[in-house]
UniProtKB/TrEMBL annotation:
Described purpose of this protein according to its UniProt entry: Core subunit of the mitochondrial membrane respiratory chain NADH dehydrogenase (Complex I) which catalyzes electron transfer from NADH through the respiratory chain, using ubiquinone as an electron acceptor. Essential for the catalytic activity and assembly of complex I.
Compartments it resides in: Mitochondrion inner membrane
Gene this chain is encoded by: ND2
GO biological processes: mitochondrial electron transport, NADH to ubiquinone
Family: Belongs to the complex I subunit 2 family.
Its EC number(s): 7.1.1.2
CC terms in the record's Gene Ontology section: mitochondrial inner membrane
Transmembrane regions: 6-26, 38-58, 73-94, 130-150, 157-175, 181-200, 250-273
Reaction catalysis annotation: a ubiquinone + NADH + 5 H(+)(in) = a ubiquinol + NAD(+) + 4 H(+)(out)
Protein name: NADH-ubiquinone oxidoreductase chain 2
Uppermost EC category: translocase
Keywords: Electron transport, Membrane, Mitochondrion, Mitochondrion inner membrane, NAD, Respiratory chain, Translocase, Transmembrane, Transmembrane helix, Transport, Ubiquinone
Amino acid sequence: ISNHWLMAWMGLEINTLAIIPMMTYPNNMRNTESAIKYFLIQATASMIIMFAIIYNAWTTNQWTLSQMSNEWATTIMTLALAMKLGLAPFHFWVPEVTQGIPLTSGMILLTWQKIAPTSILYQISPSLNMNLLVLLAVSSALLGGWGGLNQTHLRKILAYSSIAHMGWMTVIVLINPSLTILNLLIYIAATMAMFLCLNFTSTTKINALSNLWNKSTPMTVTMMIILLSLGGLPPLTGFMPKWLILQELIIYNNIATAMLLALSALLNLFFYMRIIYTSTLTMFPSNNTSKFQWFHTSPKSTSLIPLMTIISAMLLP
């Protein structure tokens, strides 16, 4: 929120350091490994951001966020923020870190942790380089789609989904920054709803979803709606930001970019449909190929799930 570069950088640092203890709880090897990976990437990106800030201050003699007038400083800053957000080609840490931590920490990592870098990107948006943004965005959307195709772990799928959504947000930040914020809010609502559903049913793999009807039948329908919204099907909420972004891109004659983004959304939709097929379309008494599991469902709070589902499904109508 700060207008001074040094304070904004401090905010990013505090944000990074504050999530590390959350990622390492409960304390085991996998959580610690993921937290260290996350810390190293974020620290590297923070140092690059600091370099860009100092270089910009050295050439322009001021420390305000809105005055990123040096082209090199802006490019370095964009790449560092892309690293923080997990945009391709700096996306490799996102699936690895998300897979290694519990569902609650994963939810915070893929939602709350995106707000700070996106807000900085939003504030420096007038001075950004369009070609670089398009390159980062299209590669993120395509790699986010391709990467998720052969995954069986739901956390990894949601991580690749996050990479693709970040691509959609980045492409429009120069043309219409308010659309980036809209997209981010809807993405956060849908991703939170999805993580809360998975946490409620204690599910982390696709094959465990085939017995979801045995655990909670309403949850299968809820997850199907949320996934279709994340994929961007009308008339669900997730269609709105995609529709508006494509419209803006076409108005500014970025037809090729719009086409690539729209096609990459189909890749995402494909792996969402795989999850839907496993969880919803293989209901009892049809034969499914996965082994039957006994479930012991611990009572968990579900008060947020209905609210988040309504936001992520019913906002467009």
